[in-house]
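CHAIN AND CONFORMATION:
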Amino acid sequence: MHHNENESLKQQALRQAYDNADMDVFPCHRTEKNGQQKAPGKIYFHTVIVVFGKEFTSMFVNDVLPTQLGAGNIESLNTESRSTYIIYTTPEDRPALEESPAYKQLAQIMDIRLYLVDWQIIESKNKYRFMILAHKHAIRKAHEEGARLVVLTPDAVFSENTFHTLYRRAAEGYTAIMLASVRVLKEEFQPLMRRFFFTAKRIEAPIKSRELVDLALDHLHPDTHNATMGSEKSSGWPSQMFWSIPGEGLLAHNCHLHPIMIYPETLSEFEGTIDDDCVCKICKEISKVYIIQDSDEMAVFDLSPRDSRLPERLEPFNMDYMVGWVVDHADEFHQQYADHEIRIHNGKCGPLWDKLSKESAELVKEIKAAGLSEEEHFFPKVLLDYDLRFPPLGIDSSCTANEKNQNAQAQGPVPDKKSTRFCLRPWNSPLLMENGDLRSCHLRDEIMGRVDEETTLRKAMHTSRFTELRRQLITGEINDPVCKDCPLAPITNLSDLKRTVADMIRASMK
C-alpha cells in the first residue's frame, strides 16, 4: 500500500510538472561527442523537434532527418559554436530513434538531448498539447543558455539551403525567421521523394529548393487547393492564401507563418501554439522579424495524409468570411505578415507572376481595410458567426423585445460556455442619452459610442466596444462583469440567441 501511495504521488508530481512545461523532471539522455562548450559571444543554436508514435518517428528518421544532413546543411548551425539538437519523445520511441543511421550521423555533427516523457501523461491530456508544452520548455532553455531556437516538425521536409540561411540571417541580427509551409499529399509525395533524391549508398539526402518545389507542385494536398484562389471550395481556416501559376509555382500571402527560428533574449508567456502569438510576445519588434519571401532561400513542405484535413467550406473564397477570420485570429504581427508576397517556385518566371502580384496585393489591402475599420458591414447571403457581431441594417432604439424569450431560463449565473444571456440590446435597442452618448443599456455606465449630426445610430454601434460585447454574447465568453450577473437578461442556449440575431438581421435585409 505504501509503495502504491508513493507511486501515485510521483505520478501526480510528474503531471503537475508536465502541465507547467517543466520537462526537466523527465529523463534526459545526452550525447555529447566532443564535449565542446559554447563559445562566449558566438552564435549558438538549439534545434528542437517533438516526435512520438511509430508513424511519425519512422517518417522523421527515414524521410525528414536525411534531408537535413549533408555538407553545408544542418552542420551550418555549427559555424561559430557547436550547437545542440533537442528531441522530445517517449521511452517507447527512443530505440527507433537511436538505432537509425540518420540519428547516428546526426550525433557526429551535433550534441543531442533526448527528453523522454511518459506516454500515459501525454495521452491523458492531449497529444497536441505535448508539442505546445515542449516548445514552451525549449524556449525557456534557449533563453537560459543564450541560444537561438530552430523549430522543426517531424513531417516537414526542408530544402538543403535552409540551415545556412538561418545562420546567415541570425548573424544579421534578426530575432525571428518566418516561412510559409505548404502541405503536400504524403501518399503521393513521399515515395517519389525517396525515388528521386534518396540512394542506398549514402544516408544524407539534401534536396535543392527548385527540385523540391517542382516535385511538390504536382502533389499538393486538398487543403492547399482549398487555400488557392479560384478553387471551387475554400478553407475554413484561411490562414494562407495562394495564387497558382501552373507549372511554375505558388504566390502566397499568409497571416500565419511558421517561426523556424526564434531568439528568446527575453521571456514572455504566450498562450497559443508557437505559430500563434509566440513571436509577437517574445520578439515584440516586427523590424527584427525576417520573412522568407523566395523559396530559393528556403523551401518547406509538410507531408500530410489525405485524411488529415482542415475545416472545409463548400463554396469559393468569401470576402466576408476572410475578413471575419482575420479580425478573430490575426494579431498585429499576423496582419503585417500578410503584406509580404512569398514566391514558391521552380525557377520558371512567366508573365502571370507580375499580374497576380498586383491582384494579390490589392486583395490583402481590401481585407485589412475592411477588418480594421469595421465602420460598416454588408451581410452575405449566408450569415456566419462573424456577421452576428454587427447591428442589423435597421435599428429601433426604443425596442424592448429583447427581454422576452419563451426558451429562456430563470436568471442566475451563466452555467457554461454553451449558454449565454438572452439580450438583444447591443444589436437593436441601445440606450441613447440626451447628450448623444450611447450605452448598451441602462445597467452599464460605459460610453460605447456617440450619435451626432455626422454619426448615425447604426454607425455609432460599429465601435470596437459594441462589437466585442456582441461577440461575448454570441460565443458565451462573457467577461463583462455587469452582463455576467445581469438581473434582467435570462439565460438561454447559444443557439437560441444566434438564431434570433440571425432572423433579426435577415429581416432587416429585406
Q: What stands out?
A: DSSP finds 19 helices and 21 strands in the chain. Confidence is low (pLDDT under 50) at residues 397-410.
